[in-house]
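Handoff note, outgoing to incoming analyst
You'll be picking up this chain. Sequence as last confirmed:
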Amino acid sequence: MSQAPVKKPPQTALSSGLKGEELSALKADIKAHADLESAQRQKTLQAYRSLGYTSPPKAKSMIRGQSVDALKAAQSAPGLAQLIGQAQGAQKRLQALKSLLPAPILNQLSAGPIEDGTWVLMIKSAAAANKLRQMAPAMSAHLRSQGWPIQSIQIKVIQGTG
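Most recent structure output, in case you need it:
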């Protein structure tokens, strides 16, 4: 029996003729890039955990055997498309208030639905809710000046889960 010839592994940057300093600089660059990717992954996973996910959600779904982005799939369903539009509108209204609200309050605030000219804002702290109730007339006037049909703002306190 004859043996197959042994193939040589492909020559890489690490196994090529790099000198000591060049090789150590390349290794340092690779390590820095890997550390940066690891930090970014940890940051992303932490953001998912803060949204209540135990593992990252799938970015794509299958519709009729074809891979589709989850947002596109949701927008193709009329009811979900309407909900997505409402949520995006609520986020735009919240962004319009960004210049009026202090950062500690803004960080606790969630945009809710709008119904009959009344917009619901949800906040985690009762003290911050009282401050927002005082600011509500000014906030609704600001939103009306920006073209949003807001007559009043209702503030609700979100009960903590933990």
